[in-house]
Every structure is written in C-alpha cells, then in structure tokens.
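Sequence in, structure out.
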Amino acid sequence: MGISQYLSIIVPIHRISGGIQNLNSWISNSILIDAEIILVHDTSDGESFLPIETICKNLTNVILLEGNFSSPGLARNKGLEIASRPWITFWDFDDLPEPMNFLRMLQKTISDRNLVGLGAFQTRPSGNKDSEKNLRVYRSENPRVLKDLMINPGLWRWVFAREIVGDVKFHSIRRGEDQLFLAETRAFDYPITFCEDIVYTYFIGEDNQLSNKKTFDPELLLAAYHFFNLSQTASGETKLFSRVACLSMNLTYIKRSIRNSNFGNLWSPLFRTVLNIFKSPQALVLLIRGQTKLNKSNGTQDRIIDLYLAGGLGNQLFQIAFILNLKTISLLRLHQPSPDICELINFGLLESWVLENPGVSIQIIQEDSLIKRLARNQGLRLSNRKFSSDSYRHIIIRSLRLKLVNFFLDRKSNLVIPNGTGQDKALNFSTKQLKISLIGYFQSFIYAESLLPDLKRVLDSKFRDDYAISDYLSVAGRSTSLSIHLRLGDYFERKNKRFGVVSQEYILNSIRHLSVTEKFDDTLLFSNDTESAMRLFSHTNIQNLTLIPSETSTLESLFLMSNSPNLVISNSTFSWWAAFLPAESDKIVIAPSPWFKEYEENRDLIPLKWVRIDAGW
C-alpha cells in the first residue's frame, strides 16, 4: 500500500454539471486507490447525483454522502465526521489536483515530521486550457505569504494531520470560512512543509464561483466578527493572521457599503477596525506592505513527551498507539508501563517507529510516587460520565488533585489531560510547547491503526511457534471455531460497576447470530475470572467448550484470540485489540452495544464492520 493510505480527501459537490469532467479525470487515478475519498453532494442545487454515482460505482475507496448543506463548509463538516485517516485535505470537484505531486508533498511533510504541508498551485481561466498559467509558490522565505493566504487561502493545497484538525469545524458562512478554518486549527503556529511542486490547478472565471460574487457582504461581516474574537485569544502567527483578516474584511465591507450608500451598519466594522489598528499596527502594515514571516520547516524540532500510562494491557496499547501519531519527538518517557508492555517493547514493538524517527530515544520510568499516581489517576472518564447528584463532589476532588499535580510536575511542561477516550481537540499542541505531559486513554481505531503492523509482527515472532499454546492455536485458527472473551473479576467491583458486565443473553444471542452462517465444532472461552466464567456457561448446551486456563499469559491469550476468525468480545480494550488485529482469514467480530453500561461511547472506538449485539445491561 502506498502513501495514499494515510489520506482522507473530502470533496464538497455543488452544481455537478459544472465540473464532472475534471472530477472524472482524477478520481480513478490508480495512485489514489488506497486513499479515502469522501464526496459530499449538496442537494440544495436540485441536481441529480446519478452522474457521480456512475463514475464511482466500481471504486471501493469512494464514500458518497448527500444532504442539504447550503455551503461548502457545512458539506466538508459532514465529511470530517467520518474521515478515518491520519491526514486530511479538501479538494474541489471542479478543479484539477495533481495526485502524484500532492502525495509527494504528503510524503515530505511526514518525513519532516511536521503536521502541516502546503503546496504550489496554478490558476487557469475556465474554458481556456491553453491560457498562460499563473503560478504561485509559497515558501518560508516569501515575505507576502501570510497576506496572500488571507486573501486566497486555497484550502485544496493544504494537508493537515488529523491531530491538529481535532474537533474544528467550518462555519456556516460562504465567505471567509476557509481562512477561519486555518486560523482555528492554529495551522500557522506549526512548522510548515513548503512544496514547490504544483499540487493543484484552480479554475477561475466561472459565473457560479463564490469568490466572484459580491452578494455575501453580511457574511463577510460575520467572518470578520469571528476573526475579531479569535484575535483576542490566539497567539503567534495565528493572532496576527486573525487581526489582518479582521481588518481586511471590515475595510472591504466599509468600502462596499459606502459605494452602495449603505451607511446603516457601519458602526460595528468601524469600531473593530479602529480597535484592531490600535492594538496591532503591525496588522495594518502587513495589509499594506504584505511583509511577515511564517514558521520555517527545519525538519525535526526537539520535543519531550512524558506519557503517564494507566490501566491494563489494552488501555496502554491505545496510549502507545497515540504516541506513534505524534511528530517531532526527541525523547519519549513512558511512566509505569505494565510488564506486558515492557515485554512487547523489548521484542521490538517500537522498532519501526524509532527507525522512522531518527534521533528519538525512549526511557522506561517505573517510579510509583504519590504525585505520579495522582497524575495517572487524572485519566478518569469523568467528562464522559452521565452526571448524577453525587458527581459534583468528584469534580471538586479531581480539580484539587489536578492543582497538586501541576504544582509538583515540571512547571515548564504543559500538562494535557484529554477527555479520556477518542480524538480530542485538547491535542492541538503548539510548537512552542516542547515539554508535554500526557494523561489519557486515547481509545480510537484511528490511532490504533499505526500500531497494528508492529504489534502483529511481535506477537507472531514470539508465539507462532510456541509449543505451550500450539494445540490451542491450531483450534483457534480454524474457520469452524469460535472464541469468546468475558471480562469478569474486577468488573464486579464497586468502583468498576459503571463499566457493566455483559449478560449471558448477549453471549448466547451472539452465538445464535454467528451460527446462522457457520456451524462451530469448537468454542474457546477466555476470561480473567475462569471460575465465574465456567459457572456462567454451566447450564448452556454449547458443545466442545474449552476454557483457556488461567496459567496462560495475557500476551498468549491476546495472540490466540487475534487468530480466531469468529470472535465475541466483552466491553474490554484487551479483547478489542484481539478483534482489531488482523487474522489469516476475514474476521467476524461481535461487540456489545452499548459498549459501557453508564459511560458514553466515543464515536471512533468501534469499527463500522463489527456486528453489535445488545449487551443486556
């Protein structure tokens, strides 16, 4: 698989008849066969989507969506909801991207260990393919970059790491929404990989182009208002960009209002213009002369990450996987990893990542001081909790404990505590934060993908020829065998009761569902509480049921389950990884719904192809 496997391409479509030939020229390009292409049709144009469906009917990597969005920004938001790759870009269907050059830019951005890439583009008058091209190359030494990006951001020539996009959404406006997106992702605060290759051809002169219309002046004023608010909280280049954008849009609105003798709504833009100039004369100078500097891409920038690991093997694998998606790390300190994680690391779990990131070093820290325990405990899923009357006491305790942790931790370190699971906008690290302490669970299949190849390689090399489990392995790998995992034991404890223990009904219903297409000759039962598991199945008529003994190690159990083509899992991250790891043949996975009894389930935890059966809470 090529570099395109890391890329999600979101394409809003409006007025299909205007650019279907351009779309047809690139969407079936073989170099994009592994990319995730999300086409979002805005039905407000009243046109049929059939021509697009015809073009894409044999393309398995294309996802088609429809809805009444009324603006390209809202259509892109729909695409962002399902985008699953670690890198994202936004193309227009009626232009001509250069896939080869764009992927080369992506490869360079990844090699530079940056989070943002920006390529050159050319403009071409619509309908005149022989016209002279207007080439614009943006490099770190170009003094007019920031001003030019404010006037024409050209979102289609940018590529963003998913971690800086986070939860940022496009605003429901049709003027300035691209500039707002760039500012709210803080893209200008990161080192940018500048590419001189032409990655995109942008057609100009179409009658229906929004950039050619002057009818959205109220929306221009709304965009200026958003930039004014952003300039009060942002810093660095983003602050300057926001002030320049606010100043430019207000002045444009004032000029057009005076020209049209519309003096009724001038006070607000006049006030913001004067205040902006007073607070930042540099913004006015930049608007006039166009001089500024963007972050130069100097390749690797030293950054120290302290990861405070929490939970068992499954949770810690998620936390390790998240780290692999971060860039520009010089030192990774893993605090309190479990013995299983240490064993996997010793067998080369992070070997590929280290080779891809020359100069990075890893330290294992096994101290268990009071402060470090407090730090790890901040990873509570408190924000995902359905609040009850007694949870406010817990909030107060957690807040006081966090203040104590911040006091004792390195004060130059930025302590980041995400919401507990999934992707989180709190992960938008500034490049100025070179020491970061991370506490969280990061339970997302988007992050987990990066760990799969090395985890499978390590488990295979360690256990494939292990005589002690060879009999179980031969059974687990058969197409007529079924593996079941039950998380019991600690889930019965009062502190864990909100997780929930899956019911016997869930297990039996799952077996019935699988038995429709397959008759099972053997069933392997995995559990952290073998006695309770056997009692649960003592009155069932499951044939050839084999309980995997408690002497089997956690890693051995993970390896055995991962090789099963039919797997029923509990609400446990341990069996989640067993299900997510690829098997020799296609795997059918059944998972409980909802995942937790009382906690909310984050949207990027369970892959769509898994079957969900009611957990019977």
